């Protein structure tokens, strides 16, 4: 039996073995890859007793390589698009209620602040920088504005019950 006949018989055995563990298309691809490796790198091996174990060792390596790549790509744990839930474009009613209550608490606390603190917060919300606030409130030192800001934030936090949530 010459090498070509041996490879043809070996191909059938490789294909049968690979088909038991993978799909028919993948098994044919793996068998083809094994034969290419045998032809390119192991052309000097002609004995069937050496070719069979070598071919099956190459096949096992190729199969492990395929499974490793499939695992890395996440092909084994893919879910169908039909099984995924649809995204809700709006917020949960509980979240909306919680947000509304926080806003109401914040507005109530701001109403109880002094005039200077309300003015300072208004200017900050309008995007004024501290030097701008200093000029608009007629203060000579910017440190006064920093101190007022700290005290107003502390007072607001206290009026909200000690936390922002």
TrEMBL record:
<dbReference type="GO" id="GO:0016987">
    <property type="term" value="F:sigma factor activity"/>
</dbReference>
<keyword id="KW-0804">Transcription</keyword>
<dbReference type="InterPro" id="IPR013325">
    <property type="entry name" value="RNA_pol_sigma_r2"/>
</dbReference>
<dbReference type="InterPro" id="IPR039425">
    <property type="entry name" value="RNA_pol_sigma-70-like"/>
</dbReference>
<dbReference type="InterPro" id="IPR036388">
    <property type="entry name" value="WH-like_DNA-bd_sf"/>
</dbReference>
<keyword id="KW-0731">Sigma factor</keyword>
<comment type="similarity">
    <text>Belongs to the sigma-70 factor family. ECF subfamily.</text>
</comment>
<dbReference type="GO" id="GO:0006352">
    <property type="term" value="P:DNA-templated transcription initiation"/>
</dbReference>
<dbReference type="InterPro" id="IPR014284">
    <property type="entry name" value="RNA_pol_sigma-70_dom"/>
</dbReference>
<dbReference type="InterPro" id="IPR013324">
    <property type="entry name" value="RNA_pol_sigma_r3/r4-like"/>
</dbReference>
<keyword id="KW-0805">Transcription regulation</keyword>
<protein>
    <submittedName>
        <fullName>Putative RNA polymerase sigma factor</fullName>
    </submittedName>
</protein>
């Amino acid at each position: 039996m010459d090498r070509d006949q041996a490879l043809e018989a070996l191909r059938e055995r490789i294909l049968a073995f690979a088909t038991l563990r993978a799909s028919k298309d993948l098994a044919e691809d793996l068998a083809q890859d094994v034969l290419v490796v045998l032809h390119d790198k192991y052309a000097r091996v002609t004995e069937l007793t050496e070719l069979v174990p070598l071919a099956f060792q190459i096949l096992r390596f190729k199969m492990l390589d395929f499974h490793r790549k499939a695992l890395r790509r996440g092909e084994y744990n893919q879910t169908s698009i039909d099984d995924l839930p649809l995204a809700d474009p709006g917020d949960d009613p509980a979240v909306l209620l919680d947000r509304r209550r926080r806003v109401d608490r914040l507005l109530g606390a701001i109403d109880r602040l002094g005039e200077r603190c309300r003015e300072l917060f208004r200017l900050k919300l309008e995007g004024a920088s501290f030097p701008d606030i200093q000029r608009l409130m007629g203060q000579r030192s910017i440190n006064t504005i920093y101190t007022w800001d700290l005290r107003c934030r502390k007072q607001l936090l206290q009026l909200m019950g000690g936390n922002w949530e």
